[in-house]
Amino acid sequence: MSLRHILLGMLGEPHSGYDLKKQFNQSLRNFWNAELSQIYPLLAKMEKDGLLSSRRVASSTGPPRKVYTRSARGRRELVAWLAEGPKVGEERISYLAQVYFLDELEDIDASIAFMESLRAHMARWLTSLEDIERRWSSDDPRYPYDLPDDAFYAQLTLALGLKKVAANLEWCDECLARLRARKALARETRST
Amino acid sequence: MSLRHILLGMLGEPHSGYDLKKQFNQSLRNFWNAELSQIYPLLAKMEKDGLLSSRRVASSTGPPRKVYTRSARGRRELVAWLAEGPKVGEERISYLAQVYFLDELEDIDASIAFMESLRAHMARWLTSLEDIERRWSSDDPRYPYDLPDDAFYAQLTLALGLKKVAANLEWCDECLARLRARKALARETRST
DNA sequence: CATTACTATATAAATATTGATATAGTGACA
DNA sequence: TGTCACTATATCAATATTTATATAGTAATG
Fold first, then answer.
1. In this predicted structure, what is the pLDDT of residue B103?
2. CB atoms within 10 A of CB B179
3. Which protein residue lies nearest to nucleotide C8, measured between its Cα and the C1' atom?
4. B68 pairs with which residues across the strands?
5. Are B97 and A101 contacting, i.e. CB atoms less than 8 angstroms apart?
6. From the centroid of its chain, how far is CA B76?
7. Cβ-count burial of B82 within 10 angstroms (0-12 exposed, 13-18 middle, 19+ buried)?
8. Distance between CA A30 and CA A157 in Å, rounded?
9. Which of A34, A53, B11, B21 could form a disulfide with B70 if both were Cys (CB 3.0 to 4.6 A apart)?
10. pLDDT digits over A79-116, tens only?
11. Is A14 part of the contact surface with chain B (CB cutoff 8 Å)?
12. CA A4 to chain centre
């Protein structure tokens, strides 16, 4: 499991469950997502296990917030996870599984529609990553060089995100070209 | 959930659970993995739900195999999943989460070691994808053009895999260059 | 004929994850 | 005052997933 470790990483600063969910939606989404209904019980369990501590904080905008911070033990567990080395080979990419079985659609136009939709998703995703980059670079004039540690590593993940989404977009275009060629070919074959 | 649909996709041809696991290890691994202990009960459940049918087949190499094939209903469910459009935004990439929190390691040499290990993983991965491509292209002289439907779509996923892993590898090199520059900078700063 | 390696199926227990739903405070607006 | 939108915390039930383990046949080796 990684969510446990991801929360430990996020809780170097105090945050409430609701806070954390917002961070997932804004940036961690790009490599991991979690629902509130998973976050709340996990925070409670991790506190029971001595990895986190919590306190109530009054709020001006709503009910009192329960903010968590990681303990020294929590930090050790996070560091141990990083020290184990990169966890490669556990990736999960649903849309690729779909493409793998796309021949089941029979109708090539349906495949083309699928791929156009995927392309649109990727284009939106790219825009959102570019927005993040713009925001970060206007927040910090040193961007992307000479950043403090946390921003430095976050920038690295963003850089990979940009590269990969751009590769995806290119690939969608190539797929569409090949699908259309295939469609034309099928038409010719039928008419001869 | 997608494993259910992935199994439906794989069971256009009859396969045993053991078979399916081998296919995961060989190629689906690149976008999804599953253990035997998940596959067996799920196959049983899907059969109970009328999505699959099974029969026992004697084997010359070991105990009798239980092979499953999808039913017409199973195929409809697969097609419905594809028709819903691409499932984007559910990706899970553990190693990127790790990079995001790599600043917790404090010691920049530990970060460099992490990234070198990641680079080695990516290099191996790239080799294995290139092997698959070589195998496919020697199996089918028409590769990668003019392929039958199933091979055509499988080839598309392979093409994306190659693109993304290559992008990852490039990115690792850039990261390493930046980490080393950062290390040199830290040394200078300390000595002045 | 004992051991090892490989093929094959399977279950149990523990965890993780999703999807639906409940509850409540605050601020704005009609 | 009612109600809508938003912030916030939380639980339940249903599923999905991982890790460890059990069982057995076949085939080759010594």
1. 94
2. 21
3. B63
4. B15, B54
5. no
6. 25
7. buried
8. 9
9. B11
10. 999 999 999 999 999 999 999 999 999 899 999 999 99
11. no
12. 16
Residue B190 has pLDDT above 80, yes or no: no
pLDDT in tens, B63-112: 788 999 999 999 999 999 999 999 999 999 999 999 999 999 989 999 99
CB contact under 8 A, B96 and A149: no
- Is the CB of residue A70 less than 8 Å away from at least one CB of chain B? no
Structure tokens of A162? 């940009």
Q: How far is CA A6 from CA A78, A87, B61, B171, in A?
A: 8, 13, 45, 22
Question: CB of residue B67 closer than 7 A to nucleic acid strand C?
Answer: yes
> For the whole model, what pTM was predicted?
0.92
How many whole angstroms from its chain centre is CA B28?
A: 5
Q: How many Cα atoms within 13 Å fall on the side-chain side of residue A126? A: 14
Residue A156 at interface with chain B, using a CB cutoff of 8 Å: yes
CB A40 within 8 A of CB A93: no
Distance CA B140, CA B142 (A): 5
Q: Which nucleotides of C are covered by protein (CB under 7 A)?
A: 6-13, 15-21, 24-27
Q: Residue A58: what pLDDT?
A: 80
List the beta bridge partners of residue A20.
Answer: none
Between CA B122 and CA B99 the distance in angstroms is 15
Of A28, A86, A175, the CB nearest to B95: A86
Rounded to whole angstroms, the distance from the CA of residue B62 to the C1' of nucleotide D27 is 9
Residue A44 has pLDDT above 80, yes or no: yes
> Using CB atoms and an 8 Å cut-off, which of residues 71-100 of chain A contact chain B?
75, 78-79, 81-83, 85-100
